[in-house]
Amino acid sequence: QVQLVESGGGLVQAGGSLRLSCAASGTSVIPYELGWHRQFPGKAREKVARILRLDTSTDYLDYDHSVKGRFTISRDKPKNTVYLQMNSLKPEDTAVYYCALREYYYSAHTWGQGTQVTVSS
Q: Percent of the chain, pLDDT > 90?
C-alpha cells in the first residue's frame, strides 16, 4: 500500500521561503504523477505543481500559473521523494498542502496527510 509522508510546512512572512518534502513508500514503480495540491478553506483541492512521467527517461513539470516562477518542484528518484521549494511566498499561498501520487495514468490519487502553510502579511 502506497503511503506518503509530508514535512516542511509552517509559518513564514510574506516574501519568505519554505521547502516541503514528501517521501513515498509502498510502491516499486516510478510513479506516473508525483506532486503537490493545496486546499483553501471551503474550496476544492487544486493542483500546485506535479511531475509527470512521460516515458522512462522524460519528466514533464507542470505548474499552476499562480506559482510559476516562484515554486520549484523536484524529485529524488532513489529516495522516491518529491520536494516543493516555495519562494516569494504570498499570503494567498496560505493553505493546506497535500502530496499526491498516481502510480499509473489510470490510477486514483494517493494523498498525504497534509501540511499547513501559513504566510503572514
A: 88
